[in-house]
Each structure stands twice: as C-alpha cells, then as structure tokens.
Amino acid sequence: MRKQTDSLRNELMDNDATAETIRNLECLVTSLIELLDVQEKVVGEQSERLKENEARFRAIYDGANDAIMLLTENGFFDCNPSSLKMFGLKTKEEFVKFHPAELSPPTQPDGQPSLQAAGEHIQTAFRTGIDRFEWIHRRSSGEDFPAEVLLSAFDWGGKRVLQATVRDISERKQSENALKESNDRFIAFIKEAAMRLKNPLEVVEENIATMVHDIERGESESTNVSLGLKIQIKNLEQIRKNIIELNKAIVDHAGELSDASKKFLTE
Amino acid sequence: MKEHELYLIMSSPSEIRNKNIELIEKVLSEDYNVLVITTNQPYDILKKNYEKNGILLDRIHFVDTVTKYAMGRDPQPAKNCRFINNPANLTDIGIAVTETLKNLDGKKVCLLFDSVNSMLIYISSQNITKFIHFVTNKLRLLNFTGIFLVVEKGLDPDVLVQLITFVDAVIDVDKIPEKAS
C-alpha cells in the first residue's frame, strides 16, 4: 500500500500544478496531525487532572469523620464509610436500601412522624438549596442518637440530588444536658437558700419586735424574755450556718476565686 | 366547714399571731381540740399569750421544739406539752404528733403550725413538705374532722403549691373581716 502510494505521488509530482496542491495538502495534514497530538495531550492532561480531582474528592468523601450520603426524595444512593460505621451497617448496598426515616425512630421528639418530617426537610433543601437541623437517628442496633444534619442540593449527572452530612452530637448533648442540670440545681439551691434566709429573718425580726413591745408595756416576765432571746440567738446562729452553706455552693459553682475570698465566704 | 375536710389557712406573717388567737377561740367554741406544733414561740410564752386572751388550755396540746433546744436542758414538765430536743428532729416531732393524735381519737382536731417560716431555719422546704404530707395523711387515715393547717403567706410558690395539694381548700384569713373589739 505504501509503495503504491509513493508511486502515485511521484507520478503526480511530475506535474507542477498538482505538485503545489500536494505539498499544500501535505502541510495541512501535518498540521492536523500536530493539532490532534496537542488535543490528545490536552485531553490526556485534563483526564489526568480529573482523575486526580476525583481521587482527591473521593479521599475526602471516604476519609471524612462525618457521615456523608447522597440521596433523592426516594432515599439514599451512595454513602461514605463513616455512614456505615455510624449506623452499624456493613455495606453500601445495604445502606442504600434505606430511606432516612427508616434510619430514625417512628417519631421525632416534637411528636412528628419521622417520615413526614424527613420529607419536609428534603423538600426544603431542594427548594432553597440548603437545610440544617437537629434530628434523632437510629442505628441498626436500635440505639437512638441525636445528630446534626446538613442537606445541600447540587446537580449530579443531569439531575438534582442532595448531599447529607450527618454528625453524631451525642457527646455535645450530654455536656449541654449536664450543664443545664448543674445550672438548674444551682438555681434551685439559691431559691431554697433565699427562702431559708429571707423568711426566717422576718420571723426573728417579728419575734424581737414583739418582745420589745411586751417589755415596753410591762407585759413580760424576765424569764420569758430570756428564753425568747435565747431562741432568737439559736435562730440567728442557724441562719448564719445556712449562709455559709449557701456561700460554699456559690464558691463551688463560681470557678475562679482567690483563696482569701473563698476563706471569707466559707468560714 | 365540712366534716373530714382539710383546710389550709394562710395569713401574713405579721398577723399570724393575732389570727391564730382568733382561730383558736373560734374552733374551741365549736368543741375542737387544738394541737400546736411550735418551732417559733416556746410553750411558756404561747401559754401566757393564750391565757392573756382568755383562752382555756384544757383542750390545747403542744409539741414544743424550741424550749429544750434553747435552754440546753429539760424544761419543767407540762401536762399538755411534749418537748422535743431540736426543731430539726422530724422523727421525734412525728412521734409526738402521732401519740398526741392517738389520745384525741374520735374528737375534732385543729392542727396549727407555728410556723412554717421558722421551720425553714432548721429544715429544708422539701423536708417540711414531706413532714406536712406525713401529718395530713395521718389525719386523713385517723378520720379526723374539720382540720386546719395554718401557715404564713410569702412562702416560695413552689412550696405553697405542694402544701395546697395536701388539703381540700385554702382560706386566706386576711380577707376575713376582723371581729369587733
């Protein structure tokens, strides 16, 4: 084939006009070949970059501590390894059989059915592009746990899908609850302490006022006055102890106080 | 006043002494016996006060938690008074109340706390409500008639709400016109 081509070429080159045309054609073909080489190189480089990007994003997706899943209104179609770990499932194939509501208790803490609530959040994310909320999920073991969910909408292969990023916030909730309980206990203690100071001091005040009144009117015996005053002394001693108890609770709760201040408050 | 009903009587702290006198006069006139549990005024002073107002003591019984505590020794025994060593000793107070009520079986009883505010010096509000609940349960079980529980106003609303659950009705004596002198 090559010999026939060369022979034909030599025959055509004997004619000046066709020789010129052939030379031009040869230049064009050479240019086209060079262009194709460049395009192939560019495509190859782009392909390499795409592969690198895919590998990078895949590494981020697969390596993320948060559970990241992809879903539509009908349910999940992809997830990362952290999702499997979070929900106690073994394979992606197993995971994508579920709808988000099926990885949740029947109702959320506000009483709304999980299926209905999940549907509303999915619709919100598709409509506005993003939705962030707290949710109670359920692992395959049956254990419920609080989660923070971020739904983000984006285009994937020509259709609109959601990326769900789910973070287990059990520890944070426990800390929040512990802090709230501690504050509630402290406030209850302060209320109790205030009642056990304010009202009793009013009693002591009333009793002393009555004794003064009776003494001024000559209506009391000294033994009764003595007994009455001894009782008020005992009352005031106990009220002072109650104040020290209150101060100890304040010192324990307050955090940074100098040793001198602590000593003053608690002794 | 209905039989077998428990009433919570409330008065302002400055008026409670006078209102107690009026209440005692009224219930004694209706053949009630009165049991005074006092963590505030000692027996001797209460007795003097009642006698000064013409109140006979034969149907008044006392559980006094402050005299022995303040004196640091046993006081002179009194026929109608049980002395407790410490206002915080709810066990002994409970026993004294139970034994006194046993002796009043079949009679109409008015129970008077003098006072919840002074009890708060020595006892937490939680233990006070538990104690009052114990006493009111005992009164209901023993089927006493027409029982009163007298406390001051100005208590913590949370404590008051609990006390109200132990009774059938609440009476604010400050809203009752004073008797003509």
Describe this structure in words.
The complex is a heterodimer of chains A (267) and B (181). By secondary structure, chain A is α+β, with helices and mostly antiparallel strands. Chain A folds into three domains: 2-59; 64-168, PAS domain (Beta-Lactamase); 174-266. Chain A is 65% helix and 16% strand. Chain A is built from eight helices and five strands. Chain A has helices at residues 2-13, 16-63, 81-87, 92-95, 114-128, 170-216, 222-254, 259-266, and strands at residues 67-72, 75-79, 130-138, 144-156, 159-168. In chain A, strands 2-1-5-4-3 form a five-stranded antiparallel β-sheet, sandwiched between helices. In chain A, strand 4 and strand 5 (159-168) form a beta hairpin. In chain A, helix 6 packs antiparallel against helix 7. Chain A is rod-shaped, with a radius of gyration of 42 Å. In chain B, helix 4 runs parallel beside helix 6. Chain B has a single domain, classed as P-loop containing nucleotide triphosphate hydrolases (Rossmann fold, 3-Layer(aba) Sandwich). The radius of gyration of chain B is 15 Å and the shape is globular. Chain B is 42% helix and 21% strand. In chain B, helix 2 (43-52) links the parallel strand 2 (32-38) and strand 3. Chain B is built from seven helices and seven strands. With 181 residues, chain B is α/β, with parallel strands linked by helices. Classes of the chains: A alpha+beta (267), B alpha/beta (181). The interface between A and B is medium-sized, with 25 and 30 residues.
